[in-house]
Write a structure and sequence with these properties.
heterotrimer; A alpha/beta; B mainly alpha; C mainly alpha; A: alpha/beta; Rossmann fold; four-stranded antiparallel β-sheet; 12 helices; 12 strands; 23% strand; globular; C: mainly alpha; MetI-like fold; 2 domains; BPD_transp_1_N (chain C)
C-alpha cells in the first residue's frame, strides 16, 4: 500500500468556533493507480489532499488522524522531513496555471530549482533534465521554452510546464487538483492524455481531484465522492458509474450530459446548495437536498458501509 | 482609538492657548528680555547673565516645571516657551487641516474631471499632474514661497498679505494635489465604465448629476481614509517650511518656527527645540496610527500610503 | 523592449519641459511684485533694476523671457547673483552636487539594507512581538521631523555625549572632500546618513513587510512549498523577490526627490554645503537667481532619476518587457 489515510480530520479555529472541514476521511491508494476524487467546491476534496501534502499552513488548522505514505506516518512529521518528500516523492499540480508560477523567473529556472532542492546536481545537469522534461510534456521547442517567463506562455503551455515541474523528481505519488478546470476543452484532452501516459511511463499513483464526472469516467481506476467533508461513496469506476448507490452520486451522474443520443433539454440540477460548514444539518449532511430522505436521515450521520464499493446512506445500509 | 484620543487631547490643549496665556499672564508674541518672575518667593530674571566666556551673552531661563510660570523655560527673547508651544500648535493644526481640506477639494475636483470626462481633458489634466508629481515637493514649495513671502500675492480682488497663514496653507495644499488626484482619477475611471453609470448616461441623466449622485458617494471612503494621513503629512511639511522660515512668519509661531528658534539654544537650553519636535512626532504618529486603523476598517484593499519626504 | 524605453524617454523630456515652464511662470509671471525687483534683491539701485530688466528680457514677450532664462541656466551658465554681487550661480550649483550625492547615496545604502532586514524579519514573524516592535519603531521613524531628529543627533553627539567614548570620534559639523580626506569624509557623514536613513527605514520597512505578506498569499508560494523548498528560500527567493518590484519603484521616486531637494533639511541641520543648503542660504538672503538655478537643476535631476528607475524596473519585471 502506497498511501493509506485513516480517519483524517481537519478543523479550523474561527471566530465562530471550531469548524470541521474534513470529518473522518479514510482511503487507500496502490502504486500506479488513479484515484478520482469528486465533489462540489467546498466538499473538502482539496483540503484533504493539501493535508496529505502537509501544505495546510494556516496556524489555526488542526489536523488529526493518520496519513501513512509507504508505511511512514506523515501527520506530525517534522517540517524538514516532510519537505524532503514534497516535490520529490509526492508532487502536486494546481488548478490555475496562470498564478501557480512565480512571475519573475523563467520556466527553466523554476523547474531546475525544484530538481536542485532534492538532488545533488550541477546547474547545467539540472537544466539538461529540464529540457528532457519539457520535451516529455510535448513542448515543441523545449530549449527555447526554458527561457520563457510564465506570462509569455498560453494557459495550456503553462499547465504543461507545471506538470513537467511536478514530474521533475519522478514522484511516486502525484496529486492533481482540478488541473484542467481553468483550461479550454481541447487543451483539457491533451492534459488528460498526458496524465495517462505518465502513469504508464513513471508508474506513478495519481490522485485526480475534480468536480467533473466526465473527466473521472475517462481517467480514474477508482472513484471517491465527497460531500461536506465526508466520503459519501467510493468504489471502482465501473461500480460507481454502472451502479451508483448514494443519492448524491446518482444526482451527480445525472448532471453529466450524455455523450451519445439526444441531449436532454435541460440537465437535471441538484436542488439546493451545499451546506455551510458552520451550520451542518443534524443528521446526514445531504439530507436537505436528498430526494430519498426519510426519518433516520435526520437522526444521525450515516457511516460508510460496504466492501470495496461502499456508500454512506441509511437507505443503502437498509437494503 | 487611543491614537485618536491622544490627538484630540493635543488639539484641545492647543485650543486652550489663549486661556493659558491669560492665566499665566504672559504675552507669547512680545519680547520680554527684562522680565523677572517669582519662583518659590525668589525673584529670577528671565534672561540670566551668562557666566561663561566674557559674560556678555544672556541665557534664557530653563524649565521651571511650574505650569503657568515658564513651565518649559524661556526662548532667546524671554518669551514663555510653553505658551508659544500651545499657540504654535494651534497654528500648525490650523494650517495642516486647512491645507488638507484644500488638497482634498482640488485633488477630488481634478480627479473627478479627468476621470469622468476623459479624452483631451483627461490627457491635459493628467499630464499636468504628472509634472506636479515629478516636481520635488520642497523645491516647489520654496519656489512658491519665495515669490510670495516678501510682498504677498494679489490676484484680482484677492490680496493675501505676506505674513498671512493662508500662504503656507495654499502652498502645502497645492503641492500634494497629485497625491489625491491620481488615485481618485483611477477610481472615477473605473466607476465611469461601470454598468450603473453607463445606464445612467444612457438614460440621459445630466453629467453633473451623475458625478454628484453616483460617483462622489463611491469615492468618499477613499477621501475619508486620506484625511488623517494627509493631515499627518501636512503637519510635517508645515513644520519643515516654518523651520526653513518660509512657513509661518514671526512673531507668529508654529512648532516648526519654535524648533528654529531653539536651534541657537540647542546646547544650552535644548528643551526649546526638543519640546515642539516631540509634540510634532506624537501628533503625527497618532494621526498615522489612526489613519492606518481607519484604512484597515473602511478600505483595506486601498493602497493609500504614508507620504515620502 | 525598445519601444517602452523610447516612450519613457519621450515622457521624461515632456515632464522636464513642463517643470521648466512651471518654474519660469512661478518666478516671472506670479502676479504681485515686479519680477525684476525680486531678482535684483532688496534695495537694488535703479540702474541694476534696469540691467536686470534688459538681460532677462522683461520688456519682451513671455516666450522670449523663457528662452533667455533657459539659456542662462543651461547653455551659457552665466546667471549671476545680485545679492552676492557677480557670483556665478551655475558653477556653485554644480560644485554642491557631489556633497548632496554623498549624503543621499550613503543614506540610501543604509536604508535599503536595514529596511530589507526589518521588512523581512517583520514579515517572517508577523503578528509576533518582534513584528509589532519593528513596525512601531518604523512608525516613529516616519513621524519624526527629520530636521528635528538631526538636531537631537547633534545635541547628543556634538554636545551632551560628545566627551564619552561613544561619540568622541564625531568630527565637528561640516563637509570634507572625499578626495582630500576620505576618512574625514566618512566620519562627518555617518551621523547625517543615519539621521536621513531613519525616516526611510521606517517607510520602506513597513511597505516591504506589507508587500511580502501580500505575496505570501499568492498561489505561486503554495507551488513553491509543494516543490519542497525551505521556508527561508520561499521567503527570500520568491516572496521578497516579487515584492522588490514595488520597492524599487518607490526607491527611485524617493532617491530622486531626496537629491532634488528633500535632503535640504538634513543638509541645513548638519551644515553640509549641498544643493539643499545652497537653496536654503539663498532663501535667507532672497537670492532669486540662485534659487532658480538650484530648483531647475535639482528638478531635472529628479526627472532623470525617475526615468532611470523605470528602466531598471523594465529590466526587473519581465512582464513589462514584452507587453
Amino acid at each position: 500500500m502506497m498511501l493509506s489515510v485513516r480517519d483524517l480530520k481537519v478543523s479550523f479555529r474561527t471566530d465562530d468556533g471550531l469548524v470541521r472541514a474534513i470529518d473522518g476521511v479514510s482511503f487507500d491508494l496502490e502504486e500506479g493507480e488513479i484515484l478520482g476524487v469528486v465533489g462540489e467546491s467546498g466538499s473538502g476534496k482539496t483540503v484533504s489532499l493539501l493535508a496529505v501534502m502537509g501544505l495546510i499552513t494556516d496556524p489555526n488548522a488542526v489536523i488529526e488522524g493518520s496519513i501513512r505514505y509507504k508505511g511512514r506516518e506523515l501527520v506530525g512529521l517534522p517540517a524538514r522531513e516532510l519537505r524532503r518528500l514534497r516535490g520529490n516523492e509526492i508532487a502536486m499540480i494546481f488548478q490555475d496555471p496562470m498564478t501557480a508560477l512565480t512571475p519573475v523567473y523563467t520556466i527553466g529556472w523554476q523547474i531546475a530549482e525544484q530538481i536542485q532542492a532534492h538532488q545533488r546536481l550541477s546547474r547545467s545537469a539540472a537544466l539538461d533534465r529540464v529540457e528532457e522534461l519539457l520535451a516529455e510534456v510535448n513542448f515543441p521547442n523545449p530549449r527555447e521554452a526554458m527561457s520563457r517567463y510564465p506570462h509569455q506562455l498560453s494557459g495550456g503551455m503553462r499547465q504543461r510546464a507545471v506538470i513537467a515541474m511536478a514530474l521533475s523528481c519522478n514522484p511516486a505519488l502525484l496529486v492533481a487538483d482540478e488541473p484542467t478546470t481553468a483550461l479550454d476543452v481541447t487543451v483539457q484532452a491533451g492534459i488528460l492524455d498526458l496524465v495517462r501516459k505518465l502513469r504508464a511511463t513513471h508508474n506513478s499513483a495519481v490522485v485526480f481531484i475534480t468536480h467533473d464526472m466526465g473527466v473521472v469516467s475517462e481517467l480514474a481506476d477508482r472513484v471517491m465522492v465527497m460531500y461536506a467533508g465526508r466520503i459519501v461513496e467510493r468504489g471502482s469506476r465501473s461500480e460507481l458509474f454502472n451502479d451508483p448507490s448514494h443519492p448524491y452520486t446518482r444526482a451527480l451522474l445525472g448532471s453529466i450530459p450524455p455523450l451519445t443520443g439526444d441531449k436532454p433539454r435541460r440537465l437535471p440540477a441538484i436542488p439546493g446548495s451545499p451546506p455551510s460548514l458552520l451550520r451542518l444539518p443534524k443528521g446526514c449532511a445531504f439530507g436537505p437536498r436528498c430526494p430519498a430522505r426519510y426519518e433516520p436521515c435526520d437522526a444521525g450521520k450515516p457511516d460508510l458501509a460496504g466492501g470495496s464499493h461502499a456508500a454512506a446512506c441509511f437507505r443503502v445500509a437498509q437494503a | 482609538m487611543a491614537a485618536l484620543a491622544i490627538f484630540l487631547l493635543i488639539v484641545f490643549a492647543c485650543l486652550s492657548a489663549p486661556l493659558y496665556a491669560r492665566w499665566a499672564g504672559v504675552d507669547p508674541f512680545l519680547s520680554t528680555l527684562d522680565a523677572v518672575i517669582t519662583i518659590d518667593g525668589q525673584d529670577v530674571p528671565v534672561m540670566e547673565q551668562s557666566t561663561e566666556g566674557l559674560g556678555l551673552g544672556y541665557t534664557p531661563l530653563g524649565p521651571t516645571w511650574r505650569l503657568g510660570n515658564y513651565f518649559l523655560g524661556a526662548d532667546n527673547q524671554g518669551r514663555d516657551v510653553m505658551a508659544r508651544m500651545l499657540y504654535g500648535g494651534l497654528n500648525s493644526l490650523l494650517i495642516s487641516s486647512a491645507a488638507t481640506v484644500l488638497t482634498l477639494i482640488l485633488g477630488t475636483a481634478a480627479g473627478l474631471i479627468a476621470g469622468y470626462f476623459g479624452g483631451v481633458t483627461d490627457t491635459v489634466l493628467s499630464r499636468f499632474l504628472d509634472i506636479l508629481w515629478a516636481f520635488p515637493i520642497y523645491l516647489l514649495a520654496i519656489s512658491l514661497s519665495i515669490v510670495t513671502i516678501a510682498e504677498g500675492i494679489s490676484i484680482g480682488p484677492i490680496t493675501i498679505e505676506s505674513g498671512s497663514l493662508w500662504l503656507p496653507v495654499i502652498i502645502i495644499g497645492i503641492v500634494y494635489v497629485p497625491y489625491v488626484a491620481r488615485p481618485i482619477r483611477g477610481q472615477v475611471l473605473a466607476l465611469r465604465n461601470s454598468e450603473f453609470v453607463m445606464a445612467a448616461i444612457n438614460l440621459g441623466v445630466p453629467g453633473p448629476r451623475i458625478l454628484w449622485r453616483d460617483i462622489l458617494p463611491n469615492i468618499t471612503t477613499t477621501l475619508i481614509v486620506f484625511v488623517p494621513l494627509m493631515m499627518a503629512l501636512n503637519m510635517l511639511t508645515e513644520s519643515a517650511l516654518s523651520f526653513l522660515s518660509i512657513g509661518v512668519q514671526p512673531p507668529d509661531a508654529s512648532w516648526g518656527t519654535i524648533i528654529q528658534d531653539g536651534q541657537a539654544l540647542l546646547y544650552t537650553r535644548p528643551l526649546v527645540a526638543l519640546a515642539p519636535g516631540i509634540a510634532i512626532a506624537v501628533s503625527v504618529m497618532a494621526l498615522n496610527v489612526f489613519g492606518d486603523g481607519l484604512r484597515d476598517a473602511l478600505d483595506p484593499r486601498s493602497k493609500v500610503r504614508l507620504g515620502r519626504d | 523592449m525598445i519601444y517602452p524605453i523610447l516612450r519613457r524617454l519621450g515622457q521624461m523630456l515632456f515632464v522636464m519641459f513642463g517643470i521648466s515652464v512651471i518654474v519660469f511662470l512661478i518666478f516671472f509671471a506670479t502676479p504681485g511684485a515686479d519680477p525684476a525687483a525680486r531678482i535684483a534683491g532688496r534695495n537694488a539701485a535703479p540702474e541694476v533694476l534696469e540691467a536686470v530688466r534688459h538681460s532677462f528680457g522683461f520688456d519682451r514677450p513671455l516666450y522670449v523671457q523663457y528662452a533667455l532664462m533657459m539659456k542662462k541656466i543651461f547653455i551659457t551658465g552665466d546667471l549671476t547673483s545680485f545679492v552676492n554681487r557677480g557670483w556665478k550661480v551655475v558653477p556653485a550649483v554644480l560644485d554642491s552636487i557631489p556633497i548632496t550625492l554623498s549624503l543621499v547615496f550613503g543614506a540610501a545604502v543604509l536604508w535599503v539594507v536595514f529596511s530589507i532586514i526589518i521588512g523581512v524579519a517583520a514579515a517572517a514573524t508577523r503578528n509576533s512581538w518582534l513584528d509589532r516592535l519593528l513596525m512601531a519603531l518604523g512608525l516613529l521613524g516616519i513621524s519624526m521631523p527629520v530636521y528635528w531628529l538631526g538636531e537631537v543627533m547633534n545635541l547628543i553627539t556634538q554636545s551632551r555625549y560628545h566627551d564619552t567614548w561613544l561619540f568622541s570620534w564625531v568630527p565637528p559639523l561640516g563637509y570634507k572632500n572625499f578626495s582630500d580626506d576620505p576618512k574625514g569624509w566618512f566620519l562627518t557623514l555617518v551621523i547625517p546618513w543615519i539621521t536621513l536613513a531613519i525616516l526611510y527605514i521606517g517607510i520602506y520597512g513597513r511597505v516591504l513587510r506589507a508587500a511580502i505578506i501580500e505575496s505570501m498569499q499568492e498561489d505561486y508560494i503554495r507551488t513553491a512549498r509543494a516543490k519542497g523548498l525551505s521556508e527561508t528560500r520561499i521567503l527570500l527567493r520568491h516572496a521578497l523577490r516579487t515584492s522588490l518590484i514595488a520597492f524599487v519603484t518607490l526607491f527611485g521616486l524617493d532617491f530622486g526627490a531626496l537629491v532634488g531637494g528633500s535632503a535640504l533639511l538634513t543638509e541645513v541641520v548638519f551644515g553640509l554645503q549641498g544643493i539643499g543648503k545652497l537653496t536654503y542660504d539663498a532663501l535667507q538672503s532672497l537670492d532669486l537667481p540662485m534659487i532658480m538655478a538650484t530648483v531647475m537643476y535639482a528638478s531635472m535631476f529628479v526627472v532623470i532619476a525617475n526615468a532611470v528607475v523605470d528602466f531598471v524596473y523594465i529590466l526587473l519585471d519581465p512582464r513589462v518587457k514584452t507587453s
